Amino acid sequence: MLKSYLKWLNHHQFHGIKPGLHRIIRLLKKLGNPHKNYPTLHIAGTNGKGSTCAILNALLKEHGLKTGLYTSPHLFKLNERFKINSQDISDEDLLEMLKILRKYVEEPITYFELTTALAFLYFSEQKVNIAVIETGLGGRLDATNVILPEVSIITSIGLDHTKYLGKTLEKIAFEKAGIIKRNRPVVIGKIEEKPLRVILERAKTLSSKPFLLDKDFKIYLKENFWNYEGKYTFKNLELSLKGLFQGRNLSLSLKTLEILEDNYFLRIQEDKIRKALKTIEWEGRYKKIFYHNKEILIDCAHNLEGIKTLKEALLQEKFYPFILLFGATNEDGEKPYLSLLEELSSLATDIFITEFPAERRVVTLREWEEALKNKRFQVSLFESPLFALKSAIHHQGSKKILITGSIYFVAEILKIIQKNFHAF
User: Fold this and answer.
1) Nearest CA among 414, 55, 73, 87 for reference residue 243
2) Burial degree of 423 (CB within 10 A; 0-12, 13-18, 19+)
3) Cα–Cα distance between 138 and 178 in angstroms, integer?
4) Cis peptide upstream of residue 321 (ω within 30 degrees of 0)
5) Which of 69, 249, 284, 298 is the Cys-Cys partner for 51 at CB 3.0 to 4.6 Å?
6) Residue 332's pLDDT is what?
7) 115 exposed, middle or buried (CB, 10 Å; 0-12, 13-18, 19+)?
8) Partners of 69 in beta bridges
9) Binning pLDDT at 50, 70 and 90, where does residue 377 land?
10) What percent of the chain is predicted at pLDDT more than 90?
11) Residue 128: which H helix or E strand, with range?
12) Would you call the peptide bond into 73 cis, given omega within 30 degrees of 0 as the criterion?
């Protein structure tokens, strides 16, 4: 029976991306406004929001709170989007939630609006103490932006989804700043001056107190351990999520925790922080595996800001030269996928590009051929991720392989690795 309900849900993928809150507000009203039954944290940003959600969820859970966590997209199964205390929703509960949703849906509505309503309903049914909610696209008109969060968090601002959010950093910042609520604090990551000004102006208008990374709180790396300075000072923190950029996500999470303590929501215990940070898993983010005598690094860097941040980490760690496996989507027709590839090309001995199955529009081999016509670097094109991965593994060049690009591409590679671990 779950299959038929998932088919019904997936049918709404065809309704595409339609920013706006009127549909989700009407549906939630029919459901009894479940999103108003528990406190929330709201996270937006071009990159880093998923990892920040995972860190926050772990910290809150370790401090004894029953947590709900809503993120997107999923890598393997829809269930991953909805977690209670870090556990995916069961097939049985997912079916029950979908049954309720289907009963109340009477108008055209998007896939993401349905999954968002499902998350709010599920967390209410499970009586969570707090829910960590990740935006899907932008913020101002995102389906999640019906909540009144204890704290809003904006992790970063970069050029992505420009068809929907605008073609400048300032316009994108305006959309992300839409999650800021009156008299509720906002925690802000490392952001360039002009878009930051837009966010701070919005915070001022709404009497929202801003907390800025590198001004109100700081983090730095020393001998592979993180040192945080805010209301508290925490030294030698060990974070299971690897990558230089994860320090920023950690600092935003710790600052948020301090604000929750100031608002009498919890009492911070350092031993619980240390324990929580060692146990976080976030699949597909700067993950290393050793596979057939190759050191493989997998990361979902799918936009220019993400690729530049990844490159910074690779240079810092000296993870190069490598064979690059790359796949991209171009949903809005405006993604600079060639620029993403060029950013990493100087560190690669060989570049393998492939198509892959995805819910989004994939950059085809024909499009790659056209884009690469006048480029100096050599690229090998493959019809499937399986062939591309096999070729990289058996290649006589570098012992390092970097797999990056679209989240859907990374998911496909991870499925292949899990299924064929000893087969190659």
Assistant:
1) 55
2) exposed
3) 8
4) yes
5) 249
6) 76
7) buried
8) 83, 132
9) confident
10) 83
11) none
12) yes
DSSP, res 34:
G
Q: Is 274 or 284 the better-scoring residue by pLDDT?
A: 274
Residues 369/417, Cβ–Cβ less than 8 Å? no
Check: pTM over 0.90? Answer yes or no: yes
Angle at 329 between CA 72 and CA 306, to 5 degrees: 65
Q: Which amino acid is at 114?
A: L
Phi-psi region of 156 (alpha: psi -120 to 50; beta: other; left: phi over 0): beta
**Per-residue b or e along 159-188, where b marks 16 or more CB atoms closer than 10 Å to that residue's CB:** bbbbebbbeebbebbbbbbbbbbeebbbbb
Of the candidates 5, 34, 1, 58, the one whose C-alpha atom is nearest the C-alpha of residue 272 is 58
Question: So what's the pLDDT on residue 201?
Answer: 98
Q: Are strands 87-88 and 130-134 parallel, antiparallel or unpaired?
A: unpaired
User: Side chain identity at 269, as an amino acid letter?
Assistant: Q
Strand pairing partners for 402?
297, 324
Average pLDDT over residues 346-375: 92
Lowest mean pLDDT among 43-57, 241-255, 282-296, 316-330: 282-296
